[in-house]
Amino acid sequence: MENKTSNFPYLHGFSELEQNRLRKQARFAEQLIYRDIDFSESRNLLEVGCGVGAQSEIILRRFPEVKLTGIDRSDSQLNAANSHLSATPYCNGRFELKQMDATNMNFDNGAFDSAFLCWVLEHIPDPLRCLSEVRRVLAPGAKVFVTEVLNSSFFLDPYSPSLWKYWMAFNDYQYDTGGDPFIGAKLGNMLTSLGYRHVHTAVKTWHLDNRQPGLRKNIIEFWCELLFSAAEQLVAAKYVTEEIVVNMKKEFDAVANDPNAVFFYSLIQASARVE
Q: pTM above 0.85?
């Protein structure tokens, strides 16, 4: 297959370290993301932007009757997904992975009875076209769940100036390379404009303070890993300096150990049907 990784502006890169982080991220956020997702009646599910198969594994575990078809543009991510899912017994014979552009899918109309997208539209320059293609390949009555970022919601206390400089650069870089770090808030409009029905959006929030100190420390450390995964790209593109990266990491460590730290972040999850 043609390797398209090189022209795909993925903020976090494609290293093995990043692939492991994605699996950790999926497990960490599982309870929040899947709390209202139900694919129990689905049999032929499309996952757009399956990446390393981190969400694929969760879907196949939670919904044992589902057969999953995952698509992604990156050969390296698909290879990692195939290796990981093939080594997971309950996934055997229940998945198929394809290298494909989500805005121009090589599937027949109405080929699937459900679809799942998580942390993918934020990276696609034409998310409306992607959602239009998803609608095309879904059969009447099919349901879709879309989970996306709303990076303007991020709050961390105590105030950390280098972290905030880094965070703004992180979002600027994603926006300048064709992504959208605020796309979650727009999902309702996007799905409605494309003719989806029964469109519903939910705000899901991590708000952690002294009431859950253990979970608060864990999520702050996890968030530091997430931001640090983009450091190489941001420095190379001159969006941040090495000094900002070093200071950002120090500030994160200080906040993680602060007895009165506060972490807040909201994601948006949309659901809809095709009629």
A: yes
Q: How far apart are CA 249 and CA 186, in angstroms?
A: 31
Specify burial of residue 6 (Cβ count, 10 A radius: 0-12, 13-18, 19+). Answer: exposed
User: Domain span at residue 158?
Assistant: 5-273
Residues 98 and 71: beta-carbon distance below 8 Å:
yes
pLDDT in tens, 20-49: 777 888 888 999 999 999 999 999 999 999
Sign of the alpha-carbon dihedral angle for 108, 113, 119, 121? positive
Whole-number average pLDDT of the chain: 93
The domain that holds 20 is classified in CATH as 3.40.50.150
Residue-wise pLDDT for 11-27, tens only, equals 555 566 677 777 888 88
Q: What does the alpha-carbon distance between residue 95 and residue 91 come to, in Å, rounded to a whole number?
A: 7
Q: Does 185 score more than 90 pLDDT? A: yes
User: 79, exposed or middle or buried, with CB in 10 Å at 0-12, 13-18, 19+?
Assistant: middle
Domain count of the fold of the chain: 1
| E-state strands within the chain | 44-48, 67-72, 95-99, 112-118, 138-149, 155-157, 197-208, 262-273
CB–CB of 56/50 below 8 Å?
Answer: yes
* CA terminus-to-terminus distance, the chain: 35
Report the C-alpha gap between 98 and 146 in whole angstroms.
20
Q: Which two structure tokens, joined as six digits, stand for 32? A: 């929040």
